[in-house]
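Need tokens for this chain, all 450 residues.
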Amino acid sequence: MRWLLFVTLFWAAPAFAQGEVDVDADVEADADGSEVLAEAETGADPETEAEAEAEAEAEAEAVAAEAEVVAAPGASTAPTCAEAAYARAASAVVRVRAGTQWGAGFVYHSPRHVVTAFSLLGLGRGATVVTRDGTEIGTRLLARDEDYDLAVLELDAPVEGVEPLGPAPETSARRGATVVALGHPFAQVSQLLGERGAGLLRWSTSTGTVGAANDVGLQADVALTEGHAGAPLLDCEGRVLGMITGAGLVSADLGLVARIGQADTLIAGSGEAGDFLGDLQLRFGIGAALLIDEDGRVAGGGYLTLGATLFDRISWMNRVGFFSGGIDDPMGDVLDHSRELIRVETMLGYRFFVDVGGFFTFYVVPSGGVSIMNERLGERRVSVTPMCTPSDTESCISIQETSMDRWIVRPAASLSFLLGGNFELGYTIEIGLDTDPVRTHHVVRAGFLF
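Here are the structure tokens for all 450 residues:
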């Protein structure tokens, strides 16, 4: 057994030694001194080599795909025009409240200057600026230009932490250039939506293009609403091209813009800021009314209103009403009767502005004056001629028509509620001081003022 083991080892040793020599001999130097692996190459497994090449190709493809994935987010996260304009300008855009009017404005030239639409201030109720963080700041009027609907407000305190917006270069106003409107479309509706309206309809962007331009204004082909009045029109870098004045005036997708250079001119020529009390405004109205007399008879009709308001406080209204009805059914020999009234009143009053939590606003207008009424009563009666014999040529029945006119002049007092600045509900009482007992007329009306 030991002899067999010895022979086996003796036979394997030369083969083992030869293998070591062959491996060492595989590394040879060629004629130029470079090394080659002659026998190692000839001994490589073809299947293993193919698999290695496939793995290398797969790894290269994976690396390339990963590079594409990494590059894609960088391209998609580049800010859009609206995003860039919003990032620069949003904090400088404010809300402007003046009486029942709401609109927009923007901090410009100085932390204490806000440019807005003069039409928002026309009521003379003073303006309050509401910043993005909800801070309310009082204002005074620094300058105005009614021709371009521009107003510059001076704030009672500067807007903290806000950099005023600057003017855009003329190249941003070329035809077809991308522009962004940043304002508050239907901002009051968001309060009705509750949580669903959080962050909506305020500080909203609307993107479009410059449709046309001249030296003083721009046509912005952008979706706009009344809430954009006074808002800035921006280029893609958040610089101001102008102030939106005709928001949706022509169409919902087009607005008129006063170039920001007009505001620069106003500021340069401004003096001291002051309170603006408003202007004289003519008012026209139409509505329906009921007239109730002291006997409870009711006549219905309509009326027209022509008047004026001064400083949004003094109210002078003249109304002409036409009424009919309010009579009893015919009885006895009465065929029919009619009652027609023409009523004129002139009233002088004061408009009290009521603000309910900054959301619902209305006016209460007590007034006094004089009413003049013409009442015309008509009646047709049937009578039979005594001792008459009817024939083909003669009738014994006759119809008599009578009418009566009377004029009534009485002092009057009125109380009106003006909702939304246009819809009016009112009540007037006429007091007959010349009668004993005192007799009255009551008028209840509902209509619109324009």
